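Bit of a strange request maybe. I'm writing a small parser for structure token strings and I need a real example to test against, not something I typed by hand. Could someone generate the tokens for this chain?
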Amino acid sequence: MDLFLFGTLLHIPLLEQVSGDGDVVSKIRWAVRPGYRVSRVDGHVFPMMHEDADGVAEGIIVSGLDEHALARLDYYEKAFGYDRVDFAVLDENQMARNVTAYVPEPGRWTPAEPWDREDWIAKFGKLTTITAKEAMSEIATMPAAQMGAQYPQMMARAASRQRAELDEGTGDMGRGDVHLVQARKTYAGFFNVEELDLTFKRFDGGVSDPVNRAVFVGVDCAIVLPYDPVRDRVLVVEQFRPGAYLRGDPNPWTVEPIAGRIDPGEEPEQAARREAKEEAGVELSKLHCVSAAYPSPGTTTEYFFVYVGMCDLSDDTAGLGGLSSEAEDIRSHVMDWADFDAALNAGAFKLLPLLVAGHWLARNRDGLRASA
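Reply from user aminoacidic:
Good idea to test on real output. This should exercise your parser:
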């Protein structure tokens, strides 16, 4: 049966990636379903089709897909709770055609405003296509529901890769000087661990012997140290960290700046402001970029955007925060500059991003206070 598509899969690069059919564009024609409308799902960026007596849902009919392509499409859509149902549409010649289409279970989503397909493609088309590459690589190893649960992390990793592509790079070597022999995903979850066999160009002009490397695949993060230049105070947060626990640290609750991943479609500064509100209830005004760098590129893909953020730190600012949905248990502390600076110079802090932001603030504090 012909397949009717009306949502994100109208973006042809995404449809090709999901279906695995590089010639899918030759199999499509426009169609409509009168009495229905395609609207953005409330709280999300993707669309749904719903009844509307005055509406017309636009989409495409895809004909001639083989069983392999249909199985891939079924897997992708089932990951988000969509199943195929049958109904009729009108093709470009106003002829009725029986089709099957992916729709969610009744009542799962609430429609918002009409979906702007071109705006979605401009903002999320490439990102979603990159994400689909990882998502579809799991078809033989991960049930659809599990893939759907991990999809937000996949998209965050894709956003990090997309952000990295915008970097102009430095030095006289590039990605073309690396030959990837094989890549294997050894763990997939909130983070991934990938094992690589590769060779790379040596500084003497030769090529390295094949090497094996394991890499923790994380996401880009925004990190911010809130500072009140009028009261001359900083805010730090404290929370349990399993890495410190696993290392054997006698106190695995670490003192840190505010930090969190940069969500897909979000700029680093937006993430810094959002995280400050979520973790400590702090509204940031001007942000000063301290650095944008890798913490440990020999073992992880993580990339940190570190800021010092101007804010108001009144006496009642400190308290408990974090999102219960993410099992966060965060305690914030407001420190007078003298106390913070003394701890900074005494080596009392154990987190490198806090040291970077703190020492930057020490060098620039007078100027920030003068312009406050």
